[in-house]
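Journal club prep — side note

Before the paper discussion, L.F. wants everyone to see what a predicted structure for a comparable chain looks like in token form. Sequence:
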Amino acid sequence: MKADRRKNFSKSMRTAYRVWGALVSLVLCFSMTACGAGDRQPDYTDELVEEETQINSQPDAPGEDGETQGNDRTDAAKEENPDNAAVPGNSGEEQASEENDTSEAPVFDLENGTVMLNSGYEMPILGIGTFRLSGSEAENSVYWALRDGYRLIDTARIYGNERSVGEAVRESGIHREEIWVTSKLWPSEYGEGRTMEGIDRMLERLDVGYIDLLLLHQQVGDYMGAWKDCEKAVAQGKVKSIGLSNFESGRLEEVCEAAAIKPAVLQVECHPYFQQNELKKRLAPYGTVIEAWYPIGHGDADLIGEPVFTELAQKYGKTNVQVILRWHIQEGTVIFPKSTNPQHIRDNFDIFDFELTGEEMERIRAIDKNVRFFTTPLEQQEAQFTAWAPED
């Protein structure tokens, strides 16, 4: 039984994975500062995977949070995903380009929990994240999530758990075509030729046949050469949809304008305190969907405890975080909260049985403070993210 695996996971292996997690965190989060967040800034090196926020507190990384249960603000621990889903598609690059070159707004189907991407594929709008999870933890979390109805799984090259994610997918008993797998390439694998080799290695690690969504993880290195290889991978049926992660500078438009296949998804920090309204306008011409990491603002107690969330949680019989997650999907944002707790995983998925009114959506929009919880200047990104390559 999957639930027993963590009990049998040796102490030495747990220690090894924590060391790996700390190393990854230092690379990704070395320069993290909270814009206007003051003393709310978390210390990643001291943050344990078990200190996640349950549903009152994703997925992210880039994107995923933890969870918090209940409405008590003090229950919110830290979100864990700062980075921060179906059969192979197009027969050629020309066809792929025609299918992806669209300015139509993405259509969110809240009843079925999916969004139609500019690639022509339907992607689940709520998934499970795996940032900073060991192989055993990732396998268990994905297994439990799939059991409870999730169909979107987010992982990445740098997370070091793609093999475990793939194993959970294979052992779930669910048809592969029903599961959406997202992974991300690190800059060390950018560049024409090199990126295709990286994609092939990723396919071997995941061992799930194909990748539903492939993202370029950071906006540094030879991302233009990498994008060309991503387009080739779509044409070859290795990947269905392609997108970007953490591209918020002018490099976003550089890729979009040159792309034969427009990015289907952009993973970025997005939450009620940082709603990314200007970025959404920039993405509109390309029909690109925002996928949020830090959807609850890194488990920030002030954000989670906003009176509007407490009031609406009481009205709908939900938790504050469930209200926040519901706001995201009604706002047209894909989310992927992370958890290693089976009950929390179930709770995070329980947001499809209520609907916020237009007036309530506006009240939440009104608390936007333009505050980030993670920021690294582009110059530092260039120096840090290109200087390190994850081991296979």
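L.F.'s comment for the group: Confidence is low (pLDDT under 50) at residues 1-102. Keep this in mind when we get to the figures.
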